[in-house]
Design a protein that fits this description.
This protein is of the alpha/beta class. It starts with a helix and ends with a helix. Helix 10 links the parallel strand 5 (221-228) and strand 6 (250-254). The protein contains 12 helices and 8 strands. It has an 8-stranded mixed β-sheet, with helices on both faces. The longest helix has 18 residues, at 47-64. It has helices at residues 2-14, 16-24, 30-42, 47-64, 72-85, 114-127, 142-155, 168-181, 198-215, 234-246, 264-272, 293-299; strands at residues 102-107, 132-137, 158-160, 186-191, 221-228, 250-254, 276-280, 288-290. Helix 6 packs parallel to helix 7. Bound molecules: guanosine-5'-diphosphate. Guanosine-5'-diphosphate is lined by residues 108, 110-116, 147, 193, 254-255, 257-258, 280-283, 287. One of its GO terms (cellular component) is cytoplasm. It catalyses: GTP + H2O = GDP + phosphate + H(+). It is found in: Cell membrane; Cytoplasm. It holds the Pfam family SRP54_N.
Amino acid sequence: NDKYQMGLHKSKSSFDNLKKLLDESDSIDDDLFDSIEDLLISADIGVDTVLFFTNELRKEVEKQGFETPNQLSELIVDKLFEIYLKGEFVDTTLRFDENKTNVYLFVGVNGVGKTTTIGKLAKQYKDLGKKVLMVAGDTFRAGAIEQLEVWSKRAGVDFYKKEAGVDPSSVIHDALIDAVNKKYDLVLVDTAGRLQNKVNLMNELSKMKRVIQKLLPDSPQETLLVIDATTGQNGMNQAHVFNEATDLSGIVLTKLDGTAKGGIVLAIRHLYNLPIKYVGLGEKIDDLVPFDIENYIYNLFK
Ligand code: GDP
C-alpha cells in the first residue's frame, strides 16, 4: 500500500523529534525523562502507560549504565515494542476457517468509522474470492442501514437488512440462518454506537453475541472495537466500556491518516491486552491496512 509506505517515510523522518531531543540533552537526568514523558503523552499514550514505560526505561538505563542521552534512542524503541508485544507473538490476522461461516462483529461509538471499515474489509475478502454478507445490525438509526447498503454496493457484496427499529438480535439471527444456508464465508455485522444509552446498548450487544454463539458455536468469530485515532484519551474509556460488555478480540484504529498519533492503542494493549488488527488510513475503500508495529512506533514521534 503506497499510502502506508509514504506514511512510513514520513514517520521515519518524524522520528527525528526524539533524536533531536536526545541530541540536545547534555545528560540523562530528570529533565530528560520529563521531556520523553511529554513526547509520549502528546502522542496520546495514556499517562499510566507512559509512567510505567519511563519507569522501565529508568531501570534499564541504570542496569546498562548508560550515560549519554543518545544511547537511549534504540532502547526507547525497543521498550515500546516490548510493551506492545509483551513477549508474545501478536497476530494481526483475523480468525478464519475456509469451511465455516465466519462472523465478525464491529462495535464502537457513532462516527468512529465502523461502517467504512466494514466496507473496506468486505472488499478485501471479496477480492480474495470469498462470499461476503454485510448485516445491518444498527437498526436504531435508519441512516446507518442505508449507509451500510451503499458500502455493500461499493464493495460488491451482499447485504442483509430489516426495517429500522427491530431488535438487532433478530436481524442477526435471521441473517445467520440465511448465511449458513447460502454458504457465505464471512458475515460482517454493523452495530449501534449510541453510548448515551450505555446499559441498553451493552445489553443489546451481549444478546447479539449470544445469538451468534448459539447458532454458530464452532465458527470463528471476532468482536472488533473500532476506535477513532483523533479522539485521544476518550478511546480508553470506550475500550473499557465495550470490553466489559462484549469481550473484545481486537481493535481497528481509524483515521490514522491525519495528525493523530494513535498512542492510545499502545495503552489499550498494555492495560487490556487487546491487539490492534487493522489501521484506517483514509475514507476510500482501499484505505485499510494490517497493523504494523514498527511503522506505528515510529509514527508516535511525528
Ligand atoms: P460509524 O458511525 O462508526 O459507522 O462511522 P462511519 O463509517 O460512518 O465513518 C464516520 C466518518 O469517518 C466518515 O466521514 C468516514 O468517511 C470517516 N472515516 C472512516 N474511516 C476513516 C479513516 O481511516 N480515515 C479518515 N480520514 N476518515 C475516515
